[in-house]
Specification:
189 residues; six-stranded parallel beta sheet; 36% helix
């Protein structure tokens, strides 16, 4: 049986992935950690909560002990959605964004490296980032891989910091890691 760990799995995107993963993969189980802030609600997983293959843990991604428990394996894939979001919120409390987005990412990656000392044993890791790390988009242009990061808010800076932390772990500890920098996503779940 394949095992997936999702951080922030009660949020907008994370809950969609948890539900789709369970629906599309009969031979899988999902561990979901989410501390249920303004961005996450158990109601987003109404369908999945009754599925025996899904386990929710109320945990903060920056809490090393909770994350260490969550990565006990074996795990095949980790998708890291957990984050403080919204530019306007970051203006009110930038430190909270640094704690969750940068320290939370580092805490998760450190736990994975400790739990799986051999690169061959480690799960694949996907970090969900944002296009806002690139800064303002010039009219009629798109940002692409390799462009410099130019964040213009505490939110974007904290996500850029998380990306750099993830890249450092990928290079230093030979993690199979991908960063996804999507543009705004909308729709039900």
């Amino acid at each position: 049986m394949k095992r997936l760990l999702v951080t922030g799995g009660c949020g907008f995107l994370g809950s969609h992935v948890v539900r789709r993963w369970l629906a599309d993969n009969a031979e899988t189980s999902v561990i979901n950690i989410d501390c249920l802030t303004y961005a996450g609600a158990l109601g987003n997983l109404r369908d999945a909560r009754s599925d025996a293959r899904h386990r929710h843990k109320d945990a903060d991604v920056a809490d090393a002990a909770a994350v260490d428990r969550a990565v006990r394996g074996p795990l095949d894939l980790v998708i890291h959605f957990a984050a403080e979001t919204h530019v306007d919120r970051s203006l009110e409390d930038p430190g909270r964004f640094v704690r969750t987005n940068v320290l939370g990412t580092q805490t998760l990656l450190a736990a994975i490296v400790r739990r799986y000392p051999s690169p061959e044993e480690r799960p694949v890791v996907i970090i969900m980032s944002t296009d806002e790390v690139y800064g303002p988009t010039p009219k009629n242009q798109l940002h692409g891989v390799g462009e410099p990061l130019r964040p213009t808010s505490p939110y974007a800076a904290s996500k850029a910091g998380a990306d750099w932390m993830a890249l450092s772990y990928a290079r230093t500890f030979d993690l199979d890691l991908t960063i996804v920098r999507s543009v705004n996503v909308f729709g039900p779940h």
